[in-house]
Amino acid sequence: MSEPIVTFQDVHKSFGDVKVLKGIDLEVKPAEKIAIIGPSGSGKTTIIRMLMTLEEPTAGDIIVDGNNLWKMEKNGKTVDANDKHLRAIRGDIGMVFQHFNLFPHMTILENCMTAIIHVKGENKEKAKKHSIEMLEKVGLGDKLDNYPSQLSGGQKQRVAMARALVMRPKVMLFDEVTSALDPELVGEVLEVIRGIAKDGEMAMILVTHEMDFALDVADKVLFLDEGVIAEQGSASQVIEHSKNERLQSFLKRFRS
Amino acid sequence: MITISAISEIFPVLMQGIKITVTVLLASIVCGYLFAFIAGFCRLSNNVILRKFTGLYVEVFRGTSLIVQLFWLYYALPILFGIDLGSDFWAGVLAISLNYGAYMSEIVRGSILSVSKGQTEAATALNMSSFQRMRLVIFPQAVRMMLPEFGNYLIQMLKATSLVSLIGMTDILYYGDILRSSNLSQAPTVYLLVLVFYFILALPLIFLTRKMESISKKGVASE
């Protein structure tokens, strides 16, 4: 078996007095697809936000490809990570947000190529070529010079995916990427994710409310409840055969 | 009475003041925006001392009158501290630009803060450094928000330049005052023409402000 690309070791997170996560242990192998489901407020999003360095864990370790994300060695002592340390590691991780967060002052093409030029140091020609290829892959090759405000929600989310993919992360995080979309636009976005998942190599962590989709795409499903992983296993085990009562009642609300 | 002959007599005299008014205005605009950006960024700095010090500057200059600041720079500084700004020109420009820089720094600060948090997060997710996040993502959006307000302050700065006549600078109002004191009955014509002069100078600024407003609307329509 290959080494995990991401490991959570007893990770806790509190916001003020509110304990959101109470000890998360998790291993993600390269190319593994994991879906995180659970009631809202259970801390699903917080898990992937900590991995993206958008929130700092209160306790515990997150290991990415052998490196401790939030801690580093300094003069023989272990101290909190600084920005440089985080930058060195988080290049392996990409994220797509619920509300797209496209850069409104840039065209679709610029949205995709800016980071590869400035962060990865690719030359402009190459960056442009790769970005166009990626945008064509998500079906937006004809919108290169449009601004985000001219696109539908589904199109925006596909741009956001192309923007993250073109950075070639080893782990891609999806934070309820269909929740802000009109129902008729959900399908096109899920279709793109399905395509990415089939391509293989990249590990994916999806926080989602789309149960059928999770069942279809994920190798492993985690049910998060009240800050702990209450149930985990293959998609069919968790979604179709679990005995956990809270999971059953949670699923019932989606199956009617 | 306002007569054509009076106007043709007054007009060339006031014209002599245009050069001073325009140069003071241009220098104040450049320095004012410079102070605004420096102070705006300092107030967002992580350094507490820098933040407090700039906060003090902003509150002092917003909280006291421009004309008193002008007199301080021109009359009081040389006597108290031996600091001589060298000319009435720089005293005038500094007073106006420090004063309006203080107001506009709040626009700089507010605009940067009002760019949504999701933008910073998306830039972080693309592994940009904090400097890149500011330069490529936050600042370009913030500037568009600043533009309309900046335009308003351009026009206000033009009007504020008339105060430099009080430290003996020969601007439009200075010549107007001289004409009035030599012939009081001409006062209505003189001040009418002074108003017209300022309004004509303001026209390009008003046009520029409109232009800035339309630029700021483009490309940043909310998501």
UniProtKB/TrEMBL annotation, chain A:
Listed GO CC annotations? plasma membrane
State the protein's name.
Answer: Ectoine/hydroxyectoine ABC transporter ATP-binding protein EhuA
Gene3D superfamilies registered for this protein in UniProt? P-loop containing nucleotide triphosphate hydrolases
Q: Where in the cell is it found?
A: Cell membrane
* PANTHER family according to UniProt: AMINO ACID IMPORT ATP-BINDING PROTEIN, GLUTAMATE_ASPARTATE IMPORT ATP-BINDING PROTEIN GLTL
Classify the protein's membrane topology as the record does.
Answer: Peripheral membrane protein
Which CDD domains does this one have?
A: ABC_HisP_GlnQ
Keywords of this entry: Amino-acid transport, ATP-binding, Cell membrane, Membrane, Nucleotide-binding, Transport
Q: Which organism is it from?
A: Virgibacillus profundi
Where is this protein primarily located? membrane
Pfam families per record: ABC_tran
Traced from the root, the source organism's taxonomic lineage reads:
Bacteria, Bacillati, Bacillota, Bacilli, Bacillales
Family that this chain belongs to: Belongs to the ABC transporter superfamily.
- Domain ABC transporter intervals: 6-251
